[in-house]
Design brief:
Elements (H helix, E strand, L loop, with lengths): L2 H17 L4 H12 L3 E8 L4 E8 L3 H9 L8 H6 L8 H4 L2 H5 L2 H7 L4 E11 L3 E10 L7 H24 L9 H5 L5 E5 L5 E4 L1 H9 L3 E4 L2 E4 L2 H14 L3 H4 L6 E4 L5 E8 L5 H8 L3 E7 L7 H8 L4 H12 L4 H8 L3 H15 L4 H12 L5
Antiparallel strand pairs: 1-2, 1-4, 3-4, 5-6, 5-11, 7-8, 9-10, 10-11
Length: 378
């Protein structure tokens, strides 16, 4: 199978998994192989609570998987960098911190090294101020560190992974058999519309029909689905036409298209092609090219940590040290122990924090951080 054929088949299976999550354990090994890694995972992290969980993974020993979320997620030096990165941006170790410094951390020495792992390529698929849904591919020692070909392959599948995960979160189904697709999703809270390549509505669920009755954020004009916003209408129409040509043609368009209701409420639309894979049966039944899922957007501003990091141009590691100073009672030894890095490394980053923020002592840094968390502190 050529690379193009492999990519096309993989994209189709990714979209099938959006409707049938039981397929993810089959899809992830293929995605890891395509990208060029040893193992892969779909998981989420919460930066505020230093917690998380894995939805699906492959190639990671269950013992080490549990150990990571029980212990090493709190010591992971890469987490802050993941929250700095833009959605869909592939990020390897060297993009976040010095690789030599990474090798000295407890997280690597006690978790990555025993497994033979040498690097990981992470991508945020969705983010809030404090949490992120992530996809990652691990690199084993026999493969070497992340390289440009690996990044390029990751970029080819990330938009499709993101669309599938977002739609899966919206419909929240254990399975949606293709033959009974319309009946299965009729009861979900999100509005769902099945449309042909020209935007003609061929089916809508109860929530979708209610949206059309209100005329906001979508209307039916001449039997076609029409958002209030002309730019959103063009973006959606483009993807309907592309969906008719197959999964790979859809590309990056139609992922989280913003919609504005007449009352100012913000909504988001996600588009799933129905012309390939197991979804083709559902599309053929209704002569539909795509399914459009519409729900209210969650408004979530940037976290104080991200604001202060950008304001003072802090690196992810510097911000990580700053957060640890805020949370750990004690001096350099206690911060180093909490982060799983050398005391000399903490001192180096402390000096850089003092230079960038104008602080002279750790207590000044704590007061600075508190002023962004609580505006009443001056």
């Amino acid at each position: 199978m050529s690379d193009a054929e492999q990519l096309s088949a993989l994209i189709g299976e990714i979209y099938d998994a959006a409707l049938d999550p039981a397929l993810w354990p089959q899809v992830l090994p293929k995605s890891a192989q395509f990208v060029g890694g040893h193992a892969a995972a779909l998981f989420y992290k919460n930066a505020a609570s230093k917690s998380g969980d894995v939805a699906y993974d492959c190639g990671i020993d269950p013992y080490y998987r549990q150990l990571y979320f029980d212990k090493y997620i709190k010591l992971d030096p890469l987490t802050v960098g993941h929250f700095f990165a833009e959605v869909e941006q592939p990020v390897a170790v060297a993009d976040i911190m010095s690789y030599d410094e990474f090798l000295e951390t407890r997280a690597y020495q006690e978790w990555g090294r025993p497994q033979g792992l040498v690097d990981v390529l992470n991508v945020a698929l969705d983010k809030t101020a404090t949490s992120a849904a992530m996809y990652c591919v691990f690199r084993h020692a026999r493969d070497g560190r992340v390289d440009d070909p690996m990044r390029q392959r990751m970029r080819l599948i990330v938009p499709h992974l993101r669309r599938a995960v977002l739609i899966g979160n919206v419909i929240d189904l254990k399975t949606a058999e293709a033959d009974g697709f319309a009946d299965t999703i009729d009861g979900i809270s999100a509005g769902m519309f099945m449309v042909d390549a020209s935007a003609r509505i061929v089916h809508a669920n109860a929530s979708g029909r209610a949206m059309l009755a209100q005329g906001s954020p979508l209307r039916a004009v001449g039997g076609k689905l029409a958002p209030n916003d002309a730019s959103a209408e063009q973006a959606l129409n483009d993807i309907y036409a592309m969906a008719e040509r197959g999964d790979a043609a859809v590309g990056v368009k139609g992922i989280a298209v913003p919609l504005m209701a007449l009352d100012g409420e913000r909504y988001v639309a996600h588009v799933l092609p129905l012309t390939s894979g197991a979804r083709r049966r559902a599309g053929a039944t209704y002569a539909a090219a795509a399914a459009v899922f519409v729900h209210k957007a969650a408004l979530d501003g940037p976290s104080p940590q991200k604001v202060i990091g950008k304001l003072y141009k802090l690196t992810p590691t510097e911000l990580r040290v700053l957060l640890a100073i805020m949370q750990v009672v004690g001096g350099v030894p206690e911060v180093a122990d909490a982060l799983g890095i050398a005391e000399s490394t903490v001192r180096t980053h402390l000096l850089r924090l003092f230079a960038k923020t104008g602080a002279k002592r750790q207590s000044d840094l704590i007061k600075l951080m508190a002023s962004y968390t609580n505006p009443l502190i001056g």
